[in-house]
Specification:
With 301 residues, the protein is an alpha/beta fold. The protein has two domains: 189 residues, Rossmann fold (3-Layer(aba) Sandwich), CATH 3.40.50; 87 residues, UDP-galactose 4-epimerase, domain 1. The chain contains nine helices and 14 strands. Helix 1 packs across helix 6, helix 5 packs parallel to helix 7 and helix 5 crosses helix 9. The protein is globular and about 55 Å long. The mean pLDDT is 95.
């Protein structure tokens, strides 16, 4: 029988790439989201369902089928709206977990975030006591604690993945790398900080590989697993690399001030991803950024 997967947030950037890969595996795919997908992210043979996961009574009416796997990629992008961020990243997760606790699923993947660590010094380890600063990280961490407790108490088959800065084709253009690429393609000014901060950027295909490897991995159940390259890179190097590859754009450095509490270096420890998941990133930054630039050039042309 075909494997059957529910991708919550399947119309988003990561959801699109996961659904596309699952289609290649000939799985049955359901996508659950608040809104319809953009034309560029709509996939044939994917059944799209729509619901606000923070509203439990509607969720139970929409989800009638049984699934082998559930991957929760849902998220509210505007983190300034504290209520909506909390409702999506905690209350919605709680509703999903309680619903699928009653069903016989193999695995529930929760997409956590490096923001759960807050300002903790790098390399950030899963066993650290987290200190998130913003509502997004706080809500994600609360969901993590709820799900890991559910595993301990009722053996709910959850795995929490914490990716760092994910990038790649079809990412929304309000993120650092897409904004930078578009500015260089259009040969316009790009306003930035001094760029000395180091961050760990993970190509989307590597993240999808980690998700798929975690679906049938018993050792990962109840665990939190960081995902990254382990090789942080300065934003300045990224800006200069992209500008050189495209041959346009003007970098206006130092125009954006860093937050007082903003860490200069953020990257993960990756022992769990190696030991438990037998995974490591394979796409180097040069290859990943080339693929991403190619996609955005096609979009603009």
């Amino acid at each position: 029988m075909k494997k059957k997967i529910l991708i919550v947030g399947g119309t988003g950037f990561i959801g699109y790439h996961l659904a596309k890969r699952c289609l290649e595996l000939n799985w049955e795919i359901r996508s659950l989201s608040l809104k319809k997908p953009k034309k560029t992210r709509r996939l044939k043979r994917v059944k799209y369902l729509y619901c606000d996961i923070s509203k439990n009574k509607y969720l139970e009416k929409i989800i009638k089928e049984d699934f082998n796997y559930v991957v929760n990629l849902s998220g509210y992008i505007d983190h300034n709206d504290k209520k909506k961020a909390y409702n999506t990243h905690f209350l919605g997760v709680k509703n999903l977990a309680n619903l699928f606790l009653k069903k016989n699923i193999n695995t529930f993947i929760q997409m956590g975030s490096s923001a759960e660590y807050g300002s903790i010094k790098s390399p950030q380890k899963e066993k650290f006591k987290c200190k998130p600063q913003m509502i997004y990280g706080k809500s994600k961490l609360k969901a993590t604690k709820f799900l890991t407790d559910l595993f301990k108490e009722k053996k709910f088959p959850v795995t929490i993945l914490r990716p760092y800065q994910v990038y790649g084709p079809k990412q929304k253009t309000d993120r650092f790398i897409p904004l930078l690429i578009n500015a260089c393609i259009k040969d316009i000014k790009f306003i930035a900080s001094h760029g000395k901060q180091k961050r760990d950027f993970l190509y989307v295909d590597d993240l999808i590989s980690a998700i798929l490897k975690s679906l049938n991995n018993i050792k990962c159940k109840g665990k939190i697993i960081n995902l990254g390259t382990g090789k942080p890179i300065t934003l300045l190097k990224i800006m200069k690399t992209v500008r050189k590859k495209i041959g346009g754009g003007e970098l206006l450095l130092g125009k954006i001030k860093l937050r007082v509490d903003e860490p200069m270096v953020i990257f993960p420890e990756l022992k769990n991803s190696t030991k438990l998941l037998n995974w490591k990133s394979k796409v180097g930054f040069n290859a990943g950024i080339n693929n991403t630039i190619k996609e955005y050039k096609k979009k603009i042309s």
